Structures are given as C-alpha cells and as structure tokens.
C-alpha cells in the first residue's frame, strides 16, 4: 500500500471515529484523543535524569553518564519511555507512515511539556538518501506538527553526510559517528529546541546542539517523543 493511500485511510479513520480513544477505541471526554485509563497506563518517563532524561530505577538528579560527560544540550524532555504502547505508536508513525500516530505522539508531548517555550524548533535532519528510502522525513514531520500545536516557528538544519546506522554502537562510537555531520544556518535565536522521535544515548542531539550553538543559540533543549530505557 502506498504512503499516499495509507495517509488517506488513516485520515478517514481519524475523522470517522470522533470521541473514541486512540488506544482502546473506548469513549473519551469531549475533545480528548485518549481515555483517562489508557493515558495513565502509558509508559511515562517520570523517574529520569534531569539532564538527558534517561530512565532511572530510582530518583537521582543526574545519571552517571551526565556526571562524567554532560551532553552539549542543556536539558532533555522525553515524556515517554520507548516501551509497549509508545513503541508501537512510534513504529506505526515511522515505519508505517501513519500520520494519526504522529499527531498523537506530538499531542502527548505537547500535553506533558512544561516551562517556557523556545523561540524556534530544529528537527534532527535525515540525509536525503534515507528520506527517499523511507518516503518522508519523520523528524521534520514531527517538528512541523509541534510547531503547529505550540505556535513556535521552525528553523532548518542539514545533514552534511549520510552516517552509518547508530544501532549496536557504544555511546562514544555513536558520538564519533555523527561528529561534524550537521550544519545550521547562522542567526538562530537564543533559545531553541531540537526535535527527534526517539533518544537512545543523546549523541546525535548533542552533536546537533554543538552546531546550533555555533549558529548563535545559547540555551538548547533536546526534545524526543520517547526515550529508550537503559541497556536498549
């Protein structure tokens, strides 16, 4: 099934089922895309490192990685652990090209976000070759949806080279793999947020944060819809 047909089918389902939970299809409060029970059962990332949002077994201000080598971004916000319902939702969006799943991910993030809004959003860019293979740029798509929901403008970044996959690499190797891979046009506002679908070690977001600081940003947040638990 083509991406265009999938999008049309998904849109029809979204319009055709008003007032039903996106997870269990049960009744929902007026205007809500989820029911209270499903919302509470989502794998919320409530116990996490204050700097990189890595899920922790018990409350701690910073994880061991951030104590040893802090990332280049100032703070990460990742409301959901990459598990169960959130993992399935992200996979439907990223690999199934289902816009309803992407809208729901962005809505969950916006609903849980706290603090002052940034002045601009910057998507973690996908190399053109990867974008052609997948059919769309998932990070740019999420960034535009968050921009629409939050009223924050987008600024563009470029991936200068197609880096090998990060899967299976150590934390140090991941950072080296993407070092120097990004370019951002100068003139960024002081406060920006980087947007990606999932954060594993934060290496990619940290390297992009370096590029944003070179482009003028002073306070850089890392936003991810989900965060992988330790050891994944």
UniProtKB/TrEMBL annotation:
Name of one Pfam family that matches: DZR_2
Domain of life: Bacteria
Gene3D superfamilies on file: 3.40.50.2020
Stretches assigned to coiled coil: none
Domain Double zinc ribbon: 17-67
Protein family membership: Belongs to the ComF/GntX family.
Official protein name in the record: ComF family protein
């Amino acid at each position: 099934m083509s991406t265009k047909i999938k999008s049309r089918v998904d849109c029809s389902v979204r319009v055709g089922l008003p007032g039903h939970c996106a997870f269990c299809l049960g009744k929902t409060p007026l205007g809500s895309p989820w029911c209270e029970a499903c919302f509470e059962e989502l794998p919320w990332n409530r116990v996490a490192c204050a700097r990189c949002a890595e899920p922790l077994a018990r409350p701690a201000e910073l994880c061991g990685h951030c104590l040893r080598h802090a990332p280049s971004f100032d703070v990460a916000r990742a409301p959901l652990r990459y598990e169960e319902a959130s993992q399935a939702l992200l996979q439907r969006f990223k690999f199934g090209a289902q816009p309803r799943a992407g809208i729901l991910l962005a809505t969950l993030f916006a609903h849980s976000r706290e603090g002052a809004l940034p002045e601009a959003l910057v998507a973690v860019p996908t190399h053109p070759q990867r974008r052609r293979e997948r059919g769309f740029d998932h990070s740019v798509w999420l960034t535009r949806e968050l921009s629409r929901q939050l009223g924050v403008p987008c600024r563009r970044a470029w991936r200068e080279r197609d880096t090998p996959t990060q899967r299976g690499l150590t934390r140090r190797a991941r950072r080296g793999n993407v070092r120097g891979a990004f370019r951002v046009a100068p003139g960024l506002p002081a406060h920006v947020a980087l947007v990606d679908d999932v954060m594993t070690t934060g290496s990619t977001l940290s390297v992009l944060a370096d590029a944003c600081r070179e482009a003028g940003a002073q306070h850089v947040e890392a936003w991810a819809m989900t965060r992988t638990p330790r050891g994944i």
